[in-house]
Write a structure and sequence with these properties.
25% of the residues lie in helices and 30% in strands. The chain is α+β, with helices and mostly antiparallel strands. It folds into two domains: 96 residues, no CATH class; 197 residues, Adenine-n6-DNA-methyltransferase TaqI, Chain A, domain 2 (Alpha-Beta Complex). Helix 4 packs across helix 7 and helix 7 packs antiparallel against helix 8. The protein is globular, with a radius of gyration of 21 Å.
Length: 318
């Protein structure tokens, strides 16, 4: 009886829906082709074409090809990869990884060798609680209005920085502080702020800023829900930990790894929780260096994580 094969085209995302997860339990991948839909120099969306067959004899190796745009007839980047390097079910999500460049395989090996997952380090990532259309009675335009606290939005977050106040397109700059609004505010502490969506003009998929308690004289702060924030479940993060975590998020290493597991510019908290991370001691060492000299961030991450010289050179050119 001939093997039944299927082709499928779908938008690429890291986490499959329930129907696709069940499909993967019944089918074996043969080939994956990643397509980056482009307009000019901007990558707008990534899709994948998969060729699969019904399980009987699972595929040992998968052919991976990639292209930019809809031209599938040119010279495609091609590699043959062991199946277990493509489909990762270690966190129960059947994640499809697409290594587009030769050194992505080494990046995957390194990023998945860290001792703990993000959540196992006592770290918590959550979405900002302020949904603006549901909190209109608390939104303020004047940043220094009496009885107000800062409201942080994505345009306030830059690598290692939180720049506030900055006005943009008439968006609110502050949040009213009162008994009714406290449920939507966070106590002022040290946090890492991570954009949930990266703009097309940004070089990296992951953009992390530092919110430091020492820089604010207010008791609370508002974080809008297009931002994620990172804290520790049992205590306040130290400033070195904040800078170290932000440096890892902002690094070329994690950017390349994130691109192998996600074809979207959206960064979900669930994705971060499942990632493996360096231990907090290592992150504190990185953060101490970056806090003194932010220009050293990339070198500090690569050095502390023991990245091989050849891979380091590739990433520094990234």
């Amino acid at each position: 009886m001939a093997t039944q094969r299927r082709l499928a085209l779908r938008q690429r995302s890291r986490r499959p829906d329930a129907a696709l997860r069940r499909l993967r339990e019944d089918l074996a991948q043969e080939r994956i082709h990643g397509i980056a839909a482009v307009a000019g120099r901007d990558v707008l969306q990534e899709s994948v074409i998969t060729k699969v067959h019904r399980l009987g004899v699972p595929s040992r190796r998968i052919t991976v090809t990639t292209s930019r745009g809809r031209d599938l007839n040119g010279d495609l980047a091609r590699s043959e990869v062991a199946a277990e390097r493509i489909v990762d079910d270690s966190c129960g999500e059947s994640v499809i990884r697409i290594p587009e460049r030769a050194y992505d395989h080494e990046i995957m090996r390194l990023a998945e060798s860290f001792p703990s997952r993000f959540s196992e380090l006592g770290l918590r990532i959550s979405t900002g609680p302020v949904v603006m259309f549901r909190a209109t009675e608390f939104l303020l335009q004047a940043p220094q209005e009496v009885g107000s606290v800062p409201l942080l939005l994505p345009h306030h977050v830059k690598p290692f920085e939180k720049i506030w106040p900055v006005s943009k397109n008439g968006k609110p700059a502050a949040f009213r502080l009162c008994n009714d609004s406290l449920r939507l505010l966070l106590p002022t502490r040290n946090y890492v702020l991570l954009k949930r969506f990266s703009a097309k003009e940004e070089k990296r998929r992951l953009v992390a800023g530092c919110l430091l308690r020492a820089h604010h004289a207010v008791s609370h702060v508002g974080i809008e829900n297009h931002l994620n924030y990172v804290c520790h479940v049992e205590r306040e993060l130290s400033e070195d930990e904040v800078f170290g975590i932000a440096a890892f998020f902002n690094s070329a290493l994690l950017d390349r790894y994130f691109r192998t597991i996600s074809g979207s510019t959206q960064v979900n908290a669930t994705e971060i929780r499942a990632m493996r991370f360096p231990d907090l001691k290592t992150l504190r060492r990185i953060g101490g260096q970056v806090k003194r000299d932010r220009s050293s961030a990339e070198a500090a991450v690569l050095s502390e994580l023991g990245v091989a010289t050849s891979l380091r050179q590739q990433l520094l050119c990234h």
